[in-house]
Design a protein that fits this description.
Blueprint lengths: L18 E4 L9 H17 L2 E4 L11 H14 L5 E2 L5 H4 L5 H13 L3 E4 L3 H10 L17 H9 L5 E4 L6 E5 L3 E5 L8 E3 L7 H11 L4 E5 L6 H13 L8 E5 L2 E2 L15 H7 L3 H9 L14 H7 L10 E2 L2 H14 L2 H14 L13 H14 L9 H9 L9 H4 L6 H13 L8 H15 L4 H13 L7 H8 L1 H14 L1
Parallel strand pairs: 1-2, 2-3, 9-10, 11-12
Antiparallel strand pairs: 4-5, 5-8, 6-7
Bound molecules: glutamic acid (GLU).
């Protein structure tokens, strides 16, 4: 694949071989924001012919769960987002932070020995008291007090049984980087204090573990959410020290992806059901549709087209084209893009993917296409042309084909269908029954059925088509909106159609 190193509007050039990573923390369900980040990293890796690493930042034993880890992996598999190095493709000791405490301890020791980090005994209360005494605002935070502790002072703290945190020594200078998405960003000297990289209990923090892992695996491009932007200047300082220690080559390039906003201009929350990837799947999003929609959150394919394949996406995606302003998750737009991808499926594929939904909804006897009965397969194959273009989500297929598969002689009309049964429905049904009785089973075909009903009910008796066909549709489908009526009647067959017409007639 081609690397287009077009120096975009002052954005940095990409390294010759791009190495990216996706490194979630396993603390909850896979959500849209997380998958959006994974998708952009994956697309950039595939577009440039680079490498994607997948690791787990599971350093929070209270919040991390195996269940969350399993769900993240399942989500990536389902979406078709694959990785080149990482979990399952190398030693766990490299890709699970929970198994790397000794590595972080060693790096921390090196930073301490070189004077880039120092032991800090100040508690939050002591720091706050010093800030108050000096007339500084409480929000000032850590004041650098322990930078210059003497060996005697440290020994004294130790003797009191106090354990030090490790803080990074932040230089008194501006920190600047050229963000791949946002252009040059500067944090003025003094914007952030010497920050903690190891807790007094010896636990290494994200601020240390994340850059160390990026460094040892040669990550050179970091694409992550805008919420992490404030940590970037801190990490750049650390990278400089890691480079001096020979642990990192240099700081990676950074690109901070836009926020994904939900309803009412608020950041899409992890708890918002709209953001839960598996709930979207349950509704019947297919991976092509959802990936297409997620790709559009912060990026556009072209001025005129917004439906594209993954291959087209990879071909065109360049992270330097991503827009910095927040993107809005619009479920309606997502659904309409999904509908387009459902239409593009091969009919066989459409049926195979619909089957688990049909099974879930109690419409067929098995969740795999190959385990369906011959009759089920036969009906579904005939139904495809009527249904595939009419559903937007696979979860809608059951409602469309349920009446075709069922052999019930009465389908309870849905409330909105019942409203279609206006005055005169009884007469319409009587006439339809009389007319259809006269059609031989051998002639029970879409065109014939259409023609006789049209001739007898609409032309001859002057009944308006809506009034003529509404009650028939309700009788045979139980729904106000169904697949095309005459085609459905052909698929269902004469005996069941006649029985359903008679049964509804009896009940109104
Ligand atoms: N584990 C971090 C998160 O889930 C990733 C941070 C990063 O990409 O640098 O937010």
């Amino acid at each position: 694949m081609n690397i287009e190193n077009k120096a975009k509007a002052g954005r940095p050039e990409l390294p010759e071989h791009v190495r990216l990573r996706f490194c979630p923390s396993p603390t909850g369900i896979p959500h849209v924001g997380m998958i959006h980040t994974a998708l952009y990293n994956w697309a950039e890796a595939r577009h440039t012919g680079g490498t994607l690493i997948f690791r787990m930042e599971d350093t929070d034993s209270k919040r991390d769960t195996q269940e969350s880890l399993d769900m993240i992996i399942e989500a990536l598999h389902w979406m078709g987002i694959d990785w080149d190095e990482g979990i399952g493709k190398g030693p766990d000791e490299l890709y699970f932070q929970s198994k790397r405490a000794d590595v972080y301890a060693k790096v921390a020791r090196q930073l301490l020995d070189a004077g880039y980090a120092y032991e800090s005994y100040s508690t939050a209360e002591e720091t706050a008291a010093r800030n108050r005494a000096a007339g500084r605002p409480e929000t000032f935070g850590y004041d650098g007090y322990d930078r210059t502790l003497t060996e005697e002072q440290k020994a004294e703290f130790c003797a009191q049984g106090r354990k030090p945190a490790l803080r990074l020594r932040v230089p008194d200078e501006d920190i600047t980087w050229n963000d791949l998405i946002r252009g040059p960003i500067t944090f003025k000297a003094g914007s952030f204090p010497d920050y903690v990289i190891v807790r007094p209990n010896g636990e290494a923090l994200y601020t240390l573990t994340n850059p160390v892992d990026d460094a040892v695996t040669g990550v050179n491009v970091v694409l992550r959410g805008e919420d992490l932007l404030p940590s970037t200047p801190r990490q750049i300082v650390l990278y400089r020290y890691l480079a001096k220690l020979g642990i990192a080559k240099a700081a990676p390039l950074f690109g901070h992806l836009p926020y994904v906003m939900g309803e009412g201009n608020k950041k899409l929350s992890k708890r918002d059901p709209q953001s839960n990837l598996f709930l979207l799947r349950d509704q019947g999003f297919i991976r092509e549709g959802l990936l297409n929609y997620l790709a559009l959150l912060g990026w556009s394919f072209s001025a005129t087209e917004d439906v594209f394949s993954m291959e087209q996406f990879i071909e065109k995606f360049d992270v330097r084209d991503v827009k910095a302003n927040p993107a809005h998750f619009d479920i309606k737009k997502a659904i309409s893009i999904n509908a387009e991808h459902i239409r593009r499926l091969d009919p066989d594929d459409f049926l195979r993917r619909s089957t688990p939904y049909l099974f879930r909804d109690g419409v067929v006897s098995a969740k795999d296409w190959s385990d369906l009965t011959d009759r089920e397969k036969d009906v579904l194959v005939k139904a495809v042309p009527l249904v595939q273009t009419r559903v937007r989500l696979l979860g809608e297929v059951s409602g469309m084909v349920g009446s075709l598969l069922s052999t019930e002689t009465y389908l309870e009309p849905a409330p909105d269908a019942r409203k279609q049964l206006k005055a005169g429905s009884d007469e319409v049904l009587d006439k339809a029954i009389a007319v259809l009785e006269g059609v031989d089973e051998a002639d029970w075909k879409t065109d014939t059925l259409h023609q006789v009903l049209d001739d007898e009910l609409v032309e001859k008796d002057g009944i308006k088509p809506r009034l003529a066909f509404g009650p028939i549709r309700v009788a045979i489908s139980g729904r106000r909106v169904s697949p095309p009526l005459f085609e459905s009647m052909e698929i269902i067959g004469k005996p069941v159609v006649m029985a359903r017409l008679a049964e509804l007639r009896k009940r109104i």
